[in-house]
Design a protein that fits this description.
This protein is mainly α and 98 residues long. 44% of the residues lie in helices and 4% in strands. Helix 2 (39-52) runs antiparallel to helix 3 (58-65) and helix 3 (58-65) crosses helix 4 (69-75).
């Protein structure tokens, strides 16, 4: 806390990054030898599903996948995930109510 010029007491906030607050879990997966999936693809699959389920933000999911937010957003469609969380019906209603 500190006192401003007008004598008011103000409280400062600790602005830690969300990345630092994220719980970290290391995961080891054994795949059959015939599987040609890469580590990067596995990260993208997991990150995209966690984003789709609302468990990670776009930025958190991108960090998990090891790519930029823009690249992650551009790749979501390839993994069957929409960038938008609204259904087409919800979007239509929003447009009609605008």
């Amino acid at each position: 806390m500190f006192t401003s010029e007008d004598g008011a007491i103000e409280k400062t906030m600790d602005m830690r990054s969300k990345k630092a607050d994220m719980k970290q879990l290391k995961l080891s997966i054994t795949l059959p030898a015939m599987t040609s999936i890469t580590e990067a693809e596995l990260k993208m699959i997991l990150a995209s599903r966690l984003y789709e389920n609302g468990q990670l933000s776009l930025g958190q999911a991108a960090d998990m996948a090891g790519i930029s937010k823009r690249a992650f957003a551009e790749l979501l469609g390839q993994y069957g995930v929409s960038l938008f969380s609204q259904t087409s019906e919800e979007l239509r209603r929003d447009i009609l109510n605008a």
